[in-house]
Amino acid sequence: MKIVGMSACVPKNTVETTAAYANFKQFDVDRIIGNTGVKRKREAEEGVTANDLCIAAAEPLLEELGWERDSVDALVLVTTLPDYIMPASAHVAQKALGLSSRCLVFDMTLGCSGFTHGMIVLDGLLASGVVKRALLLCGEMTSDRFRPRLHKATHRTDLANALLFGDAGTATALTAEGDQVRSVVFGADGENYEHIIVPGGLGRTFWSPELFERVADEEGDERRPLDLLLRGPQILTFTMKRVPPMLKELLEKAGWSQDDVDVFALHQANHFMLKFLARKMKVDKDKVPFSIENFGNTSSASIPLTMLTERAEQMAQPTKWCMMGFGVGLSWSGLMMETDSIVALPLREI
Questions:
Q1: Among candidates 342, 324, 338, 330, which has minimal Cα distance to 117?
Q2: What CATH number belongs to 182-349?
Q3: Is-contact 164 297, C-beta < 8 A?
Q4: Closest CA relative to residue 265, chosen from 274, 253, 273, 257
Q5: Residues of CATH 3.40.47.10 domain(s) within the chain?
Q6: Residue range 47-104, pLDDT digits in tens
Q7: Is residue 173 a contact partner of residue 135, using CB atoms and an 8 Å limit?
Q8: pLDDT at residue 219, rounded to an integer
Q9: Under CATH, what is the fold of the domain 2-175?
């Protein structure tokens, strides 16, 4: 598998996280901003979906690469919030991008590790020879969905999510004409799936008026069943337990040392966690780029968005990458890749 191009699209609407001062105590807001590192982020307009952002990223990438639409053999879309319960959003993207009917098209419902999981799946398809060219779309639009827009956040339990998460979509073009993958590691801990969860809205608790009503949980905090529940201490423990061994295994399988890696492209969970993780893994901090300051946690889009906005110059030259995603599921996955030159489009805004 070879990466030939990447692009990203974010909403034009930039929100400064200090806007939360209007509804919350400055001390509480500053504490969360200090931990997450999010100074500003993008929030999409009403009616825009994650799929729309991904399509807007993919369209100019196909044009720039000069790919004929019927030459794309597979389209995989990664998001936790598709356009519809059915059909898969990837089919909507297939139509919008004008791809052939002979294209393999499907969604993956995953967040934090979605980009690396998607890369691993497509690496297998490309290596099999069944697929020659593929598009991996990763995006999230959670404004007024799993969390309120920042100016609408008034409940204490909404503040952290309203500050942390941003909207974005990315597109990655892959071909079978090359072997850039040096190692792959993945895993899952379904025993603790409830540590990051939106409990209401689908099969277990289907749509009803009650999903929009706030009820007290076991800790006395009032939430809607539609709200994202993220148990921070448990997630930090999970990350510190799983990610350092994943890096060690990736390096061993690739036959690399840490010094060989040029960029550690990590899921942008939050700034505190990433800095703590880098110290624990003894990784050179200059090799760990951050995009979370300007875009927030963009879920499956965060790794490619970080590569494009923070390391575009290295995408244009031979580079050894360590890409690692970890979080919802609970899940983790990573790849070591050695690229030559990746077409990196300027950030698009809609």
A1: 324
A2: 3.40.47.10
A3: yes
A4: 274
A5: 2-175, 182-349
A6: 999 999 999 999 999 999 999 999 999 999 999 999 999 999 999 999 999 999 999 9
A7: yes
A8: 74
A9: Peroxisomal Thiolase; Chain A, domain 1 (3.40.47)
pLDDT of res. 221 = 80
The burial of 192, by beta-carbon neighbours within 10 Å (0-12 exposed, 13-18 middle, 19 or more buried), is given as: middle
**Which regions of the chain does DSSP assign to beta strands (E)?**
2-10, 14-16, 40-42, 74-78, 104-108, 133-140, 168-175, 181-188, 196-197, 215-216, 222-223, 229-230, 263-266, 319-327, 331-339, 343-344, 348-349
Q: What is the mean pLDDT of the chain?
A: 96
Give dist(CA 116, CA 181) in Å, integer.
12
> Using one digit for the tens of pLDDT, what is the confidence trace for 185-241?
999 999 999 999 999 999 999 989 999 999 887 777 888 989 999 999 999 999 999
Judge whether 340 and 3 are in contact, CB under 8 Å: no
The gap from C-alpha 306 to its chain's centroid, in whole angstroms, comes to 10
CA–CA distance, 61 with 346 (Å, rounded to integer): 10
Task: Please name the amino acid found at residue 40.
Answer: R
Nearest to 338 by CA among 277, 281, 255: 255
Q: Are strands 343-344 and 2-10 parallel, antiparallel or unpaired?
A: parallel
Q: Tell me: pLDDT of 122 over 90.
A: yes
The pLDDT of residue 14 is above 90: yes
Q: Which tens digit of pLDDT belongs to each residue from 163-173?
A: 999 999 999 99
The DSSP call for residue 179 is -
Q: What residues have CB less than 8 Å from 41, skipping those under 6 apart? A: 14, 15, 17, 165, 166, 167, 294, 295, 296
- pLDDT 10s digits, 288-338: 999 999 999 999 999 999 999 999 999 999 999 999 999 999 999 999 999
SS3 readout for 194-214: HHEECCCCCCCCCCCHHHHCC
